[in-house]
From TrEMBL:
The active site is at 154 (nucleophile), 178 (charge relay system), 248 (charge relay system). This is Lipase member H. GO terms for biological process: lipid catabolic process; phosphatidic acid biosynthetic process. InterPro entries: AB_hydrolase_fold, Lipase, Lipase_LIPH, Lipase_N, TAG_lipase. Ca(2+) binds at residues 192, 194, 197. It is found in: Cell membrane; Secreted. Its main location: membrane. Residues 1-16 form the signal peptide. It is a peripheral membrane protein. Hydrolyzes specifically phosphatidic acid (PA) to produce 2-acyl lysophosphatidic acid (LPA; a potent bioactive lipid mediator) and fatty acid. Does not hydrolyze other phospholipids, like phosphatidylserine (PS), phosphatidylcholine (PC) and phosphatidylethanolamine (PE) or triacylglycerol (TG). It comes from Castor canadensis (American beaver). It catalyses: 1-hexadecanoyl-2-(9Z-octadecenoyl)-sn-glycero-3-phosphate + H2O = 2-(9Z-octadecenoyl)-sn-glycero-3-phosphate + hexadecanoate + H(+).
Length: 451
């Protein structure tokens, strides 16, 4: 009997201890999702000195929040199963790694958890009002709107927009990670995130054909892989739960990569994904900047330039790899051919370095047109950045399986890196490609003065 009593008190002790010391994100069951949940917002503060253990704060108790520092709010979206977002811990930790700031996790799992999307969506304005009360308190204690940053995922992106609107766009920055599309698509600006909601609004669209918002919503809108289907995500329902959320969640993982990985993801301002793939948008024309806009945390370095435009909105496209760190490296393959007749087809190019690393790019999104003595510049995308290329292979295909095999007669091919224009350009002269046959060769450094 005594033993049992001791055991129970021990369990109670342990439980109340952990509850008090480190509050955690609300965990709900699928049952809660089925019956639906009423709104309750929990604000969890993480700081440099308390990176893994949250402190619960509210508008009457700011806790250890230092109002002179930047405060970043992380706001999740719809939770159809009640589980906590899997990326939340990583995002908090990574933000604190790059800057000494206050990170406030906005846990509105009670409210967002329901199988009925419209119920979750209908609570977004109320969440925004609660956040405004809290921010007002930061301001009353000497904080500044310039230092407020909101990262909103899906419905959370529109919540951020509603908060920003209540401050007439004076909020420092909003990042929308695949802002929710259903019920928001086509709505007027006051009913969704828009560029006037903060001093700078950047958006990543990764699932525009399903859960995400299609049209631009920010000062810069990044469309990875065109914004539709993300590489590495299941393409059919047989992929299970991943099929529904993988594309949508990719926006969060891309943002995380900007904090964590040592390769920067550059995006190319362009009117369409097709123009980007056709290599029409490779010069950003941004004065005083060595690179095109980078996706993620550091996107605000381009703020002044992007806000100068009229209207202050830019769409930017780029492709990614199918896994972390997601970076790909852009090259141009310039080909001058001398076939008598026009040839149309696709090219596969492989690069190999001295250590035997091989990386491949298929340029097959639409047929390239090779015309006698005309230069065609093809945009090649590789998932490795091989510094010293020792061998190159090219393969030409017209796509027809039956019928005659064609040859592509190349007068000159030139390979140049977009990210590293200072690297020597590699050339090869006089080469005949047999259709569907891989042809290896050693390139030479192109002579300085090229026709
Ligand atoms: C860390 O978090 C705990 C639990 O919320 C809190 O009691 C403590 O004051 C925090 N410490 C610092 C230095 O922020
Ligand atoms: C705010 O937090 C303090 C300290 O945790 C708590 O005592 C108080 O009841 C909270 N106020 C509200 C309105 O939730
Ligand atoms: C708050 O942050 C400022 C600026 O980083 C720093 O100078 C100050 O010491 C901090 N205050 C506290 C109480 O930690
Ligand atoms: C190339 O291969 C070597 C040895 O296998 C490896 O250590 C290196 O990281 C590779 N380089 C790249 C750019 O992938």
């Amino acid at each position: 009997m005594l033993k049992l009593y001791l055991l129970i008190s021990l369990i109670c002790l342990v439980r109340s201890d952990t509850d008090e010391i480190c509050p955690s994100f609300t965990k709900l069951s699928f049952h809660s999702a089925v019956v639906g949940t009423g709104l309750s917002v929990k604000l969890m503060l993480y700081t440099e000195r308390n990176q893994t253990c949250a402190q619960i704060v509210n508008f009457t108790a700011l806790g250890n929040l230092n109002v002179t520092k930047k405060t970043t709010f992380v706001i999740h979206g719809f939770r159809p199963t009640g589980s906590p977002p899997v990326w939340m811990g990583d995002l908090v930790e990574s933000l604190l790694l790059v800057e000494d700031m206050n990170v406030v996790v906005v846990d509105w799992n009670r409210g967002a958890t329901t199988v009925i999307y419209t119920q979750a969506s209908s609570k977004t304005r109320k969440v925004a009002v609660i956040l405004k009360e809290f921010i007002d308190q930061i301001l009353a204690n000497g904080g500044s709107l310039d230092n407020i940053y909101m990262i909103g995922v899906s419905l959370g992106a529109h919540i951020s927009g509603f908060v920003g609107e209540m401050y007439d766009g004076q909020l420092g920055r909003i990042t929308g990670l695949d802002p929710a599309g259903p019920l928001f698509n086509g709505r007027p600006p006051q009913d969704r995130l828009d560029p006037s909601d903060a001093q700078f609004v950047d958006v990543i669209h990764s699932d525009i054909d399903a859960l995400g918002y299609k049209e631009p919503l920010g000062n810069i809108d990044f469309y990875p892989n065109g914004g539709l289907d993300q590489p590495g995500c299941p393409k059919t329902i047989f992929g299970g739960m991943e099929y529904f959320k993988c594309d949508h969640q990719r926006s969060v993982y891309l943002y995380l990569a900007s904090l964590r990985e040592n390769c920067a993801i550059a995006a190319y301002p362009c009117d369409s994904y097709r123009d980007y793939r056709n290599g029409k948008c490779v010069s950003c024309g941004i004065p005083q900047k060595v690179s095109c806009p980078l996706l993620g945390y550091y996107a605000d370095s381009w703020k002044d330039y992007l806000k100068e435009k009229d209207p202050p909105m830019t769409k930017a496209f780029f492709d990614t790899d199918d896994k972390k760190p997601f970076c790909i490296y852009h090259y141009f393959v310039d080909i001058v051919s001398w076939n008598k007749n026009i040839r149309r087809g696709s090219i596969i190019i492989k690069l190999k370095d001295k250590d035997g690393n091989i990386t491949e790019s298929k340029i097959n999104h639409e047929p390239a047109t090779f015309q006698k003595y005309h230069q065609v510049s093809l945009l090649a995308r590789f998932n490795q950045d091989l510094d010293k290329v020792a061998a190159i292979s090219l393969e030409f295909s017209t796509g027809s399986v039956v019928g005659p095999k064609y040859k592509l007669r190349i007068l000159r091919m030139k390979l140049r890196s977009l990210a590293h224009p200072e690297r020597p350009q590699l050339c090869r002269y006089d080469l005949v490609l047999m259709e569907n046959v891989e042809t290896f060769f050693q390139p030479i450094v192109c002579p300085k003065l090229q026709m």
